[in-house]
Predict the structure.
Amino acid sequence: MNEILGGGFASRLFQKIRTEKGLAYAVGGGLSFAYDHPATFHVMVLTQSANTVEATKLAMAEIDGLTTRPFTEEELARAKDNILNSFLFRYDTREKVLAERERLEFYGYPADYLESYKAALEKVTLADLDRVAKKYIHPDKLAVLVVGNGPEIKPGLDELKLGPVETVDITIPMPKPKPKQP
């Protein structure tokens, strides 16, 4: 599901927001993978301030689409291939394999986790994607954080109908000048 939503060049987010609409420098997201705690869901879109509202609307529509627009066999096959092919680069040296095995051991994963992960991934079906999306994706419970040029972005944020907009000042204060030495 992550790969289909925001995992690469063929993902729904990338195709809609970057390729079709040309609104983002980078876009991606999904459920984060945590070794020892529940995952968080996130989507990020890096865009110009003037395009923030439109890009956010499109991202929210793609998130909603996980629960309302059926996944396709083509998406599933491509996602599986992308993930399985990534193993070629993620584990292409003994050092990388050892580092991953150490991490998995540290967090209590079974010794055959990588092999069982691959086997389980190969068995994922469209019904699995639909079930997982409906269980974990809740478009009505999103928190949206927008960072950028406030005066240029803020007037359009009301269009998103997400509730009151709270401005947070993240200005980094300039260091005080050092006193001159006598």
